[in-house]
Write a structure and sequence with these properties.
Blueprint: H1 4-10, E1 35-42, H2 48-65, E2 68-76, H3 88-100, E3 105-108, H4 114-124, E4 127-130, H5 131-142, H6 146-160, H7 168-171, H8 187-222, E5 227-232, H9 238-246, E6 263-268, E7 274-279, H10 289-294, H11 296-304, E8 307-313, H12 319-333, E9 340-345, H13 353-359, E10 364-365, H14 374-388, E11 390-396, H15 401-410, E12 412-418, E13 423-429, H16 431-436
Parallel strand pairs: 1-2, 1-3, 3-4, 5-7, 5-8, 8-9, 9-10
Antiparallel strand pairs: 6-7, 11-13, 12-13
Helix pairs in contact: 2-5, 5-6, 6-8
């Protein structure tokens, strides 16, 4: 009887996650699904239940990447072993389990150092990778736009750079030799220099994209259009909600990280205002810092938004921990102070939504699939945007009906009174909209000439 996994290893195959293919790292075509053993560690700071939930999510990530989790190993330790993550004895036990299940790769739930990965592969006799590698491979599989591909490749290279030790021969595309490097320069140094040069090139491209986004943001401010960013955990239904609210056809799939590229659509609110609704990349626990750094140009959409619609999967068993994981990332990117509207999605598949809403006053429950609650959500978005605007007074002559209509469209009218000069309006309005009606604005009391 032949050993397919052994044959693949004998031919130098490194497994589904061993190498990133293509310029942006896209997946290499395979005619098989690899067998994966998952490993997590429970420490005094991390409960067994938390580790089990994290491994469950890791299993979904592995499945999304195109492989099959066949066994899970959880170890209790006082602390992570700095040399092998789990300790040499446990690593040998995992090697036996991997042999039993014919597993190609062992995936660890926490990020491995270069030394840990090197030592583990020596003990296991097969590829040892971490959660970060799996996530980056999924990014590579799903990136479609030029910006997305640049961000994915940059994240991958930043992850690789400190892990060149012992793997330089795999990353190099040069044979070396006369004329290719200076006297005494090692292959490791050649690889490091090549990666740094490519990182600098990609960072330059992203700086250009960031400048372009800044120009677009300034144009939106001048046009008085508010921006609402949809954020949330991966697979919470953000793209489905965008489609349901705007009648668009953004790509939707029941898999993790199906959306990597920001997508913008116009949303007409019940009050007559038009806002820009932006779908963003989903977040996940233990999100690699390489991701946050590389995707900052995309994540800045959330930082610059007037309102965050934070979508939570109400049917998830651990939706509270998912909610906190998203807020942690928002804190890192500087979006924690942007007003947030919690939206519990998948009302059609969830139980106990009333308890969630009671625990989070001001939240909204919807079903992007059935449309339940969407009209109310649109109204709440409009109310929240208007409430965030400052109040101002305007006096419009009776003959300028188009200006009166414009004020109604662009603001929340708190009161209107007929005077000898015209209609006096007290409104909530943002600065950009107020500038359009500057000729009719009443000066603040402390600004009057006495």
């Amino acid at each position: 009887m032949t050993d397919p996994a052994g044959d693949r290893r004998a031919k130098g195959h490194r497994g589904a996650f061993g190498e990133f293919g293509g310029e942006a790292g896209g997946f290499i075509d395979r005619a098989f699904r690899e067998q994966i053993v998952l490993v997590g560690v429970a420490t005094p700071a991390l409960s067994m239940r938390a580790v089990e939930e994290s491994l469950e999510e890791l299993a979904r990530l592995v499945d999304t990447a195109g492989a099959d989790p066949v066994h899970r190993v959880i170890q209790r330790r006082d602390r992570i072993d700095p040399a092998t993550y789990v300790g040499r004895g446990k690593a040998q036990e995992i090697r036996d389990i991997a042999e039993q299940y014919d597993a190609d790769t062992v995936v660890f739930d926490d990020e491995l150092s270069a030394a840990q990965q090197y030592n583990l592969e020596g003990i296991l006799g097969r590829t040892a990778i971490d959660r970060t590698t799996v996530i980056l491979d999924i990014f590579a599989q799903n990136a479609s736009s030029t910006e997305g591909k640049v961000q994915v490749e940059l994240a991958q290279l930043r992850y690789r750079l400190p892990r060149l030790r012992g793997s330089g021969y795999r990353l190099s595309q040069q044979a070396g030799g006369i004329g290719t490097r200076g006297p005494g320069e090692t292959q490791l140094e050649v690889d490091r220099r090549r990666l740094l040069r490519r990182i600098n090139t990609l960072e330059g491209k992203l700086r250009g994209i960031r400048r372009h986004r800044g120009v677009q943001a300034r144009r939106r401010q001048r046009s008085a259009q508010s921006t609402v960013a949809i954020v949330g955990y991966t697979n919470a239904g953000k793209s489905s909600l965008l489609n349901a609210l705007c009648g668009s056809e953004a790509h939707v799939e029941d898999r993790l990280f199906a959306t990597l590229d920001a997508l913008t659509r116009r949303l007409d609110l019940p009050g007559g205002e038009t806002v820009l609704l932006v779908d963003t990349v989903g977040f996940v626990r233990k999100l690699p810092h390489e991701f946050v750094e590389a995707f900052m140009s995309t994540l800045e959409v959330a930082v610059d938004a007037d309102l965050l619609v934070h979508v939570v999967d109400a049917s998830a068993a651990d939706c509270d921990s998912q909610l906190e994981a998203v807020r942690e990332v928002l804190e890192v990117i500087g979006a924690a102070k942007v007003p947030e509207l919690l939206v519990f999605n998948k009302l059609d598949a969830a139980e106990g939504v009333e308890h969630l809403m009671a625990a989070h006053p001001g939240s909204v429950a919807v079903s992007a699939l059935t449309g339940a609650g969407l009209e109310y959500l649109s109204a709440v978005i409009g109310d929240r945007l208007r409430a965030a605007a400052a109040t101002a007074e305007f006096v419009v002559p009776f003959s300028r009906g188009e200006v009166m209509a414009g004020l109604h469209r662009s603001s929340q009218v708190l009161s209107e009174t007929a005077t000898g000069e015209g209609m006096r309006y007290l409104v909530r309005i943002d600065d950009a909209s107020a500038a359009r009606f500057a000729d009719y604005r009443c000066p603040a009391p402390d600004g009057l000439d006495r």
